[in-house]
Amino acid sequence: MNTLKKLFYVLLLLNLASAQVLAAEISVSLDRNPVSLDESFQIIFTANDTPDGDPDFSPLEQDFELLNQSQSSNMSLINGQLSKSMKWTLNVMAKHPGSLVVPAVRFGADSSQAVSILVPQNADNKSVDSKDDLFLEVQVSPESPYVQSQVLYTARLYRRIDITRAGLSEPELSDAVVEKLGDDSNYNTQINGVNYAVTERKYAIFPQKSGSLTIKPLELTAEVPLNNRPSFGGFFNPQMTKAKKVLSKALTLDVKPVPASFTGQHWLSAEQLELKEQWSGDTQQMKVGEPLTRTLTLLAKGTTVSQLPDLNSGTVDGQLKTYPDQPALQEQKKADGLVAFREEKIAIIPSTAGFYKLPAIEIPWFNSQSQTMEIAKIPETMITVADAAGTLPEPAIPAVQAHKVDVAPLAQPTQQNIWLWISAFLAVGWFATYIRLLILYPPKKPVTAKSEREISLQDCVKKLKKACADNNATAAKEALLAWGRQKYSTHEGISVANLGVIAELSEARLRDEILHLNHVLYGKTTEQWQGKKLFQAFAENKARKKISDGDGDQLEPLYRL
């Protein structure tokens, strides 16, 4: 009986623990921040799984008026994993100005996080005539940017009548890059006691030269209903409309040139910037012939990806062979501007044991928020490379300068000096004989099956490296087959009869290069084969294989702005 009770309590604790682990995560976002007092806005609650219960939105009623709400769900199957998300969208309006807090909302045992929103006091500075049923408002921030810095351009369409077939032009100006940011947002507001529906659209503008740049007025064309109604109702007598055109005002930017205080060679203006590096292994325990991958990443907010500079531009020691991959470039468009991302991977293969130093990486950039120059830096990196047997090199001992001592010459060598010279000569001869014997008859190390396999694999890799360096496709094929038979046929029981078998056992990039080699050897078209990409993919494939055999810990996201 006691055993059954213990089992019951254990199962109960396990259920409680699993429920804690599987608790739904509920995030909160706002479609705009800040908002005016008389403007409606959206609060979006998103759960990554079905929460414990229905939401209780009553805590929001203290500071916000709930206008309406909607709910949606989404399911997706990615790599065999089923994921589900649920979303609740609330249209609300603040009851009073100030720095307000959207409180935490309970979903049964689950809960969201509180978020802040700024609601400034309204200042009705718009001069709206009672006949203004439809008008456009535009604004830029900042009005005096530096060249190639981000400018946020916001267009708002105010309407209190229904419109159809509406079309809005894009902002136009010369010598600038214009990017639309996300989807339009819709809300309601009041101006001088008049209710308006508002559609807001945002752009990021990057002026490419200094001086005065004018953004042409936006143009809205739409069909609006006439006041008079048809004399006969029904389907064949629809509401009559007329075409209407509405223009915004033109805006002028005073673009400043690169400030004289900026001393970097590559001008880069951003609101935030982050530079990081990551290694696929330990830089203090590298081995000759084995690759290590260095990953450099640059994340910048308020700039385009084309403005990000190269990261791997420094020179390294000739004994370190580097194989850079193509950089990965991404751009994300958010409501408050662009976020640009650049990633560079470099496979480093040492050819000689020793101590090496990679130079520091410095990215000068201009902080458009603080209006100052800053430098993102990765300090110089020290690398220690052991030989193939794993023996680390001896640390360098600084040379000590000997002090010169003047000794008066002797008239005649004494008997003691003669015997001293004879002893030294015999010692040198004995030492030379010992070294000669070691060279001719080196001590044999015990050879194991594992060491024989490693030696054989290293010989295959050396042959493959030479064949790729010589662009010899036939030799590269023979070296790959020898390597594959040694690695898979002998020790894993897989028959390696051709290059296709090795390609199927390799990662995507190496597989593609092996299949390309096979096409060059046996295809109908004659093509001059280049072996650099094949050996680079082969080296990186070994590095990734070594990582996949590790503990499998997942790294947390590195970049959050």
Any descriptors?
alpha+beta, Immunoglobulin-like, disordered C terminus, 561 residues, five-stranded antiparallel β-sheet
Concise description?
The protein has helices at residues 2-21, 415-440, 449-469, 473-492, 499-504, 508-522, 532-548, and strands at 26-30, 40-47, 55-56, 64-78, 81-94, 98-102, 106-107, 110-111, 115-119, 134-141, 151-159, 164-168, 176-191, 194-207, 211-215, 219-225, 241-247, 251-255, 269-270, 272-279, 286-287, 292-301, 320-324, 328-334, 337-350, 354-358, 361-367, 372-378, 381-386. It has 561 residues and is α+β, with helices and mostly antiparallel strands. The strands form nine sheets. Strands 20, 22, 23, 24 and 25 form a five-stranded antiparallel sheet that branches.
Mean pLDDT: 80
Reading off the top of the CATH hierarchy, the class of the largest domain is best stated as Mainly Beta
| CATH fold description of the largest domain | Immunoglobulin-like
CATH architecture of the largest domain: Sandwich
Q: Mind describing the biggest β-sheet?
A: 5 strands, antiparallel
Spans with pLDDT under 50 lasting ≥5 residues?
16-21, 398-414, 445-449, 550-561
Using DSSP, what is the number of strands?
29
Distance between the termini: 57 Å
The rounded Rg comes to: 36 Å
Strand-residue proportion: 35-45%
Shape: elongated
Determine the CATH superfamily of the largest domain: Immunoglobulins
> What would you call the structural class?
alpha+beta
